[in-house]
User: What shape does this take?
Amino acid sequence: MVEFDGFGPEKIIEVYHPKSGMHGYLVIDSTALGPGKGGIRMTPSVNMNEVAKLARAMTWKNALAELPFGGAKAGIIADSKKLSPEHKKEIIIAFSDALRPVCPDLYVAAPDMYFAEEEVRVFVETNGSMKAATGKPKDMGGLPHELGSTGFGVFHSTLVAAEHMGLEIKGATFAVEGFGNVGEFAAKFLTERGAKLVGVSDSKGCLYNEDGINYAKLDEIKKNTGSVVNYPGKVLPNKDIIKLDVDILIPAAIPNLIIAGDVDDVKAGLIVEGSNIPMDAQTETLLHRKNIMVVPDFVANAGGVISSYVEYTNGTEKEMFKLVEEKISRNTKLILESSSKEKTPRDAAMEIAMERVLKECRICKIDYEMFPI
Ligand code: NAD
Assistant: This one.
């Protein structure tokens, strides 16, 4: 049974299509600020509870980014890697057909795990409305992932946080966990601004070079050899990225990178969460008590959803970069200024997001003891 509270979910939809074997879920958590927005994931293990939790996270992320979207998420139970292309297409067509009563009026789809732009193409073509999803291929008016909107947002969040704590970005040392879409662009923009990249990791290990890592050379080595560990320097286990003596740490790969027991190993004074849930809220609190500033994921990595909104309104690449910069900078500043010794930046961000949803919500019923705003 999916947990619910005064915010939502508003609708939980389970759909089947026996002929194709399609079985999936859509959870529309909240439409207080607009149609529920969130990606579709296609994994063998996806279940209603997982989808509901992710839908709730989208409610807060969209509210905090001040987008006219509510929160939603969808999941199709299927092993994408084992399906033939024809069978996969059949399943997506069946899923899109089944969601037509609510999409695009109450739900706008997007890519997520094992559901990339070509899968989005099938979903949108079946639905018939270009507003059915964002993350579309470029020839359908999509703003491609390769533009690096999320990494660009993480970069701006880092600039604002560094300024807030009086850290000069030029010459500041930083390390990035993961050199994929988010980590790569965050590293690129930060090095271009004069920060010194000294550590970077991927699934093969952690590379440390205290003399500084040249971004262009690193990018070339990653593309040619498949791993950042082939760049000259010391190779450590990938988890050691959290122990490096740096000013700034940017998690941009796996969940739960830092656990409560790691807190004393962290040397960075600023952590900007590029990945989703790189640590739980309790670990953030422990770091906060040690005066380590942590900019939470749904604030720092909202560049992707902001880019989705620009695509939804048929905007251009240029407009996307401008809006990501404006929104991420403003919201990072707002939550850092609203946080205090007793209140972590995540708590401050949650209060702001909840207030924004409550202000527009006609059906929310909130237990103020549970949510002391
Ligand atoms: P990606 O698949 O492009 O890159 C992931 C990178 O992580 C790869 O370089 C991989 O080698 C590395 N990696 C895997 N295991 C690792 C490990 N144990 N240690 C270090 N590195 C490891 O993924 P991405 O799109 O960059 O997403 C990264 C994170 O950011 C995910 O948590 C994702 O949910 C989140 N996120 C992404 C976006 C986006 O727009 N791409 C938006 C919001 C949040």
In short: The chain has two domains: 11-142, 149-338. DSSP finds eleven helices and 13 strands in the chain.
